[in-house]
């Protein structure tokens, strides 16, 4: 990542073939703003005692939104991890659906209030249900792609995880399997340099997760994950490769974690004030906003209007979810087995 | 109708289901060209190219990939080469496969079969002899099947492949070639979750599955010559357990013995004993007895040690006599 103390647009789009239509860029920006606004609201609700648990996407928005814009929303599968709010919003989950999960409501489409928030799922949107032990979704992504190959389809499976997860056996087993069988999978490692409190250097001896690609005989690319256009471009190439039958790609999105690990963590216990301040200068949303304004792709008025609409959307999603009923106790026994 | 062994019955079930439904495929170690280390999948790669797939040697990856495939409109059969090697896949089976339907509130289904050859008496030592059913029969959301005859193995495996839930299909490896039986040509099913009285009797009920079912049958034939009538109930499915059949048998005979090869403490026999104690106490004329493997870490290699570990028809007959005399 470029070392800079300001949220400049420097470098944004430089790795990208920026023939992306202005309207698409504004859509990307809108998705990033929506993810951030929802995330910030969830923290407020947590601190107000209304939501027991929050885990954030803040700092990862460009990586998630850029990647998801390169997927085919009518057929591709996503297997995001718990920070994937930006991913699921682009794939079609609504703010109200996200809030229903936060409040563990019966109508929560991810789990009907059974899972902790941020364990996103929707069969309709091909967002695959996830668990909390990290990395289990990586072999699932390989298997979804294997099924696609067996059935002769051309959907790709896209999965995300943090850099801590690269220490898990399932990371190795899933990527190796996909590489051996040249399966259409995109492995996105969102490297924010921390697994709760443990820094990257205590997870791996290599400098970059992307280097691991070579061990599996697949491309490993390291991308500035705070640059939404670079993420879009890297993912677009990986999707092209996957659909052409050329196999998987490992993309390392170098991002920042702008919050503590979760609402139950205090990152001041292991990150210095200086580091926290420096990280703030890499906010992907501020960077993209600066870029859009510098290139006259959005006006101040348009951005203000966009933010207002999003704020209203977050308000109404919160209201709807808060009013929605909780699951009935007798539903505890539902869906142990499929009929 | 021809007599076939259990191994052939399982191969036929897979073959016929692969012919019936193009979504069925097999993934495991050595299942392709080699046809599996026990030859269960022999010849299937030639018949179904691309659908019998040799996996890298990684059990979590095998089950994990099948979990994914099951969510993309295929019907995977994962083969774990020996049940002893299933431990690395424990998380994928217990926390993923068994929970995906529940945790998605019924949105996703998990039509997955995991086949695992288990059990000892074949000089397999500590890591090619284990019984693993107790770990997995504890898990809601998972079905655990352990057939003992070719007819049941074929019919249950077909049911398992069609079932929308994850099924752990336990094949006692000593029965593969040892146990033969008549299997009809028609496309039949044996339903999951139903026990079967393999030998009706009056004086006591014995509950078993897999190889032990046959040892119990042998012991029951011996006891018959001594004037004791033993009912032998083949559980066939451990989860969901056919509690009705178990209780009905005990209420008739008033005495119960549970036999398994797995070690005794925390073993599946305890569950059956508790079930009978809770729901048929007033019908009992004797305490529920259990006969299981010894509480040692696993089955040793040397023949005297292996023999000392394995329940045998003689040991089972002795337990039956004690119970009959109570």
What does this structure look like?
The complex is a heterodimer of chains A (339) and B (326). With 339 residues, chain A is an alpha/beta fold. Chain A has one domain: 3-Layer(aba) Sandwich (Rossmann fold). Chain A is 42% helix and 9% strand. Chain A contains 11 helices and 7 strands. In chain A, the strands form 2 sheets. Chain A has a 5-stranded parallel β-sheet, with helices on both faces. In chain A, strands 4-5 form a two-stranded antiparallel ribbon. In chain A, a hairpin with a 2-residue loop joins strand 4 and strand 5. In chain A, helix 2 (61-69) packs parallel to helix 3 and helix 5 (137-151) runs parallel beside helix 6 (169-180). Mean pLDDT of chain A is 95; it is low at 1-5. Chain B has 2 domains: 3-182, Rossmann fold; 196-325, 3-Layer(aba) Sandwich (Rossmann fold), CATH 3.40.50. By secondary structure, chain B is of the alpha/beta class. The longest helix of chain B has 15 residues, at 6-20. The termini of chain B are far apart. The model of chain B has no long low-confidence stretch (mean pLDDT 98). In chain B, helix 3 (59-70) packs parallel to helix 4. A 7-stranded mixed β-sheet of chain B has the order 3-2-4-5-7-6-12, with helices on both faces.
Task: List the defining traits of the structure above.
heterodimer; A: 339 residues; 5-stranded parallel β-sheet; disordered N terminus; B: 326 residues; alpha/beta; Rossmann fold; 2 domains; 7-stranded mixed β-sheet; 5-stranded mixed β-sheet; 13 helices; 38% helix
């Amino acid at each position: 990542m470029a070392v800079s103390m300001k949220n400049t647009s420097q470098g944004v789009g430089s790795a990208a073939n920026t023939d992306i239509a202005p309207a698409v860029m504004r859509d990307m920006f809108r998705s990033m703003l929506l993810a951030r606004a929802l995330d910030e609201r969830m923290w407020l609700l947590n601190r107000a005692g209304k939501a027991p648990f929050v885990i954030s996407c803040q700092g990862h928005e460009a990586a998630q939104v850029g990647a998801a814009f390169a997927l085919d929303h009518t057929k591709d599968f996503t297997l995001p991890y718990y920070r994937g709010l930006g991913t699921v919003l682009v794939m079609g989950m609504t703010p109200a659906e996200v809030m229903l999960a936060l409040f563990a409501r019966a109508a929560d489409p991810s789990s009907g209030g059974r899972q902790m928030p941020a364990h996103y799922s929707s069969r309709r949107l091909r967002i695959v249900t996830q668990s909390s032990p990290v990395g289990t979704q990586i072999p699932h992504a390989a298997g979804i792609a294997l099924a696609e190959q067996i059935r002769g389809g051309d959907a790709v499976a896209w999965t995300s995880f943090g850099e801590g997860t690269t220490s898990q056996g399932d990371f190795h087993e899933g990527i190796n399997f996909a590489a051996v069988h040249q399966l259409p999978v995109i492995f996105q490692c969102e490297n924010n340099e921390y697994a709760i409190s443990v820094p990257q250097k205590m997870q791996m001896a290599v400098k970059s997760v992307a280097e691991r690609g070579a061990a599996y005989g697949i491309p490993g690319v390291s991308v500035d994950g705070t640059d939404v256009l670079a993420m879009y471009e890297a993912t677009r190439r990986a999707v092209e490769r996957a659909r052409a039958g050329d196999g998987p790609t490992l993309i390392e999105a170098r991002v920042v974690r702008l919050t503590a690990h979760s609402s139950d963590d205090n990152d001041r216990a292991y990150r210095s004030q200086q580091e926290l301040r420096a990280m703030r200068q890499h906010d992907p949303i501020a960077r993209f906003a600066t870029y859009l304004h510098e290139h006259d792709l959005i006006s101040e008025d348009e951005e203000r209007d966009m933010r207002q609409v999003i704020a209203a959307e977050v308000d109404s999603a919160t209201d709807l979810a808060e009013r929605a009923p909780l699951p009935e106790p007798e539903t505890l026994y539902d869906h142990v087995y499929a009929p | 109708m021809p007599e076939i062994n259990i191994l052939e019955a399982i191969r036929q079930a897979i073959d016929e289901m692969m012919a019936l439904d193009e979504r069925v495929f097999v993934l495991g170690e050595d299942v392709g060209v080699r046809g599996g280390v026990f030859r269960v999948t022999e010849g299937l790669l030639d018949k179904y190219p691309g659908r019998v797939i040799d996996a890298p040697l990684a059990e979590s990856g095998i089950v994990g990939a099948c979990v994914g495939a099951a969510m993309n409109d295929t019907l995977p059969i994962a083969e774990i080469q020996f049940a002893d090697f299933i431990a690395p896949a424990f998380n994928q089976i217990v926390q993923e496969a068994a929970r995906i339907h529940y945790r998605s509130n019924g949105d996703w289904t998990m039509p997955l079969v995991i086949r695992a050859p288990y059990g000892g008496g074949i000089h397999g030592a500590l890591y090619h002899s284990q019984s693993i059913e107790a770990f997995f029969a504890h898990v809601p959301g998972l079905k655990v099947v352990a057939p003992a005859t070719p007819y049941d193995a074929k019919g249950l495996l077909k049911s398992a492949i069609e079932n929308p839930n994850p099924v752990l299909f336990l094949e006692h490896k000593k029965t593969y070639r040892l146990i033969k039986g008549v299997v009809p040509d028609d496309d039949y099913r044996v339903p999951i979750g139903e026990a079967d009285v393999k030998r009706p009797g009056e004086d006591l009920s014995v509950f078993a599955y897999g190889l032990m079912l046959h040892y119990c049958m042998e012991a029951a034939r011996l006891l018959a010559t001594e004037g004791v009538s033993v009912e032998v109930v083949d559980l066939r499915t451990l989860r969901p357990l056919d509690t009705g059949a178990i209780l009905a048998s005990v209420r008739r005979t008033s005495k119960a013995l549970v036999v398994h090869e797995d070690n005794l403490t925390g073993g599946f026999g305890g569950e059956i004993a508790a079930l009978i104690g809770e729901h048929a106490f007033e019908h009992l004329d004797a305490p529920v007895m259990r006969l299981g493997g010894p509480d040692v870490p696993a089955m040793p290699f040397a023949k005297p040690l292996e023999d000392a570990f394995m329940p045998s028809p003689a040991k089972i007959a002795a337990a039956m006599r004690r119970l009959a005399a109570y």
